[in-house]
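We were asked to recover a plausible sequence for a given structure. The inputs and outputs are reproduced exactly as logged, with field labels preserved.

PROBLEM: sequence recovery
POSITIONS: 491
GIVEN STRUCTURE:
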């Protein structure tokens, strides 16, 4: 009986050799590679320390002149390095605009607002696309009633002032920065570019100083917000102790299409009203109160390729009605642009272990002609948060597949699309605000913002959290309804 009991116990034990999963082997490999430098340095330091312990006072005196020369060289090189290194740029805070409830509309309500300017066939197409768009029932459009076939200039200007000034007011309230301290103002709006410019509107509204530097970016699509970050970073490198204010928006009342072309009607289904603002600083004493530090900006432009250049294009139809055409090649272009962008970004952010695995895969396929799948680097090892432009369900599906991201990392982008729609280049900030409202941002976390835009461009910005964001104290566009998310989105 004892023997039988022993056999039963033994049969109930797990097969440990089979239970060792590949992912644990991979984690061990990553740990070994990541700490290889330390594993090499420790023995070298031990040998040097032992060697120095054998020196007598006479030996040290003989080497004193050499030590002085080396010290002088070290001090000189350190000074040169400190003076030539880039200035650190901090994201003090940011704000996302939440329009008044009177502009909130459901999908059917939006169709009704368009009913006076579209024929029955176009309205049915909008209904079909809206059901699969990934948008929810509480997005915002700049019209309380019917949308006119010809939107007056004053409507566009009123929308611009409402969303931009509203977002800036929220940001100034959060940061406590005085408007006279702002030295750089950058605005990006793709379709609507009035004269005077939107940046001039900000200067006039807040009565900024005569020395303020202003820029107005137009026609750069949904990735322009990250281009604005890059421009602000470059300007802050040459202007000490400065604040840069970025306003990111798309004035969608200027982009409503009232014709019959289905390729142009798509934008009506996706784009919604919104804006974001961000305050960047290069002041060293702002580090303590800032949320994030800018780590990397990588910009990719595929405009030399005609297919990429034409995949999102603003022009007129045969009836002279303006609208943005989205070509059938759009998703292929998005994938190619992303691949090019992450090829540059990867070496900057991925651990050495991932880079070596990618290199080994490349050599095996190109040099030894092995028929193996290309190794896709695991960007989850480089970032804790993914802020992907909420351009549409198809875009998010494509990136989820290409980057092999789990549902929880796609959640901020999908919920942004569902709650606010495609707010163009400001959507990546609504994504980050979602993660803050959920209490997911911890000190040291890295966030990757990815934007796509006409031209065709793919841009990446990487931030590192300087402190843990307390969701209980944080006030943003998600604050009073964050407990309702995530929701299950059906198509």
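RECOVERED SEQUENCE:
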């Amino acid at each position: 009986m004892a023997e039988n009991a022993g056999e039963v116990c033994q049969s109930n034990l797990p097969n440990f050799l089979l239970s060792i999963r590949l992912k644990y082997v991979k984690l061990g490999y990553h740990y070994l590679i990541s700490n290889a430098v330390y594993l090499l340095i420790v023995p070298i330091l031990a040998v040097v320390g032992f060697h120095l312990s054998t020196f007598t006072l006479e030996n040290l005196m003989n080497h004193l002149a050499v030590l002085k020369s080396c010290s002088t060289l070290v001090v000189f090189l350190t000074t040169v390095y400190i003076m030539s290194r880039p200035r650190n740029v901090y994201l003090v805070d940011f704000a996302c605009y939440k329009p008044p409830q009177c502009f909130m509309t459901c999908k059917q309500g939006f169709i009704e607002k368009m009913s006076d300017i579209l024929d029955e066939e176009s309205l049915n197409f909008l209904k079909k696309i809206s059901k699969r768009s990934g948008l929810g029932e509480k997005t915002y459009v700049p019209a309380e009633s019917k949308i006119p076939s010809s939107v007056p200039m004053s409507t566009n200007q009123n929308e611009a002032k409402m969303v931009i000034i509203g977002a800036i007011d929220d940001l100034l309230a959060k940061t406590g920065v005085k408007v006279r301290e702002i030295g750089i103002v950058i605005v990006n709006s793709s379709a609507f570019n009035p004269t005077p410019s939107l940046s001039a509107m900000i200067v006039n509204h807040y009565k900024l100083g005569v020395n303020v530097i202003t820029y107005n970016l137009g026609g750069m699509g949904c990735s322009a917000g990250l281009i604005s970050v890059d421009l602000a970073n470059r300007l802050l490198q040459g202007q000490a102790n400065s604040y840069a204010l970025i306003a990111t928006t798309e004035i969608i009342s200027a982009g409503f299409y009232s014709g019959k072309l289905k390729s142009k009607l798509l934008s009506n289904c996706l784009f919604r009203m919104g804006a974001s603002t961000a305050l960047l600083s290069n002041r060293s004493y702002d580090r303590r109160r800032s949320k994030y530090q800018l780590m990397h900006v990588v910009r990719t432009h595929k405009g030399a390729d005609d297919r990429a250049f034409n995949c999102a294009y603003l022009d007129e139809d045969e009836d002279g009605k303006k609208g943005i055409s989205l070509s059938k090649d759009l998703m292929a272009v998005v994938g190619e642009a992303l691949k090019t962008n992450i090829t540059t970004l990867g070496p900057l952010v991925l651990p050495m272990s991932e880079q070596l695995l990618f290199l080994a895969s490349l050599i095996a396929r190109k040099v030894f002609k092995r028929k193996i799948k290309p190794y896709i680097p695991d960007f989850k090892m480089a970032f804790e948060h993914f802020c992907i432009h909420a351009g549409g369900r198809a875009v998010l599906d494509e990136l989820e597949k290409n980057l092999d991201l789990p549902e929880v990392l796609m959640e901020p982008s999908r919920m942004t699309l569902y709650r606010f729609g495609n707010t163009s280049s400001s959507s990546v900030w609504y994504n980050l605000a979602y993660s803050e409202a959920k209490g997911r941002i911890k000190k040291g976390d890295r966030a990757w913002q990815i934007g796509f835009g006409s031209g065709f461009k793919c841009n990446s910005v990487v931030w590192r959290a300087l402190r843990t964001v307390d969701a209980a104290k944080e006030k943003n566009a998600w604050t009073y309804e964050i407990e309702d998310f995530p929701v299950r989105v059906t198509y």
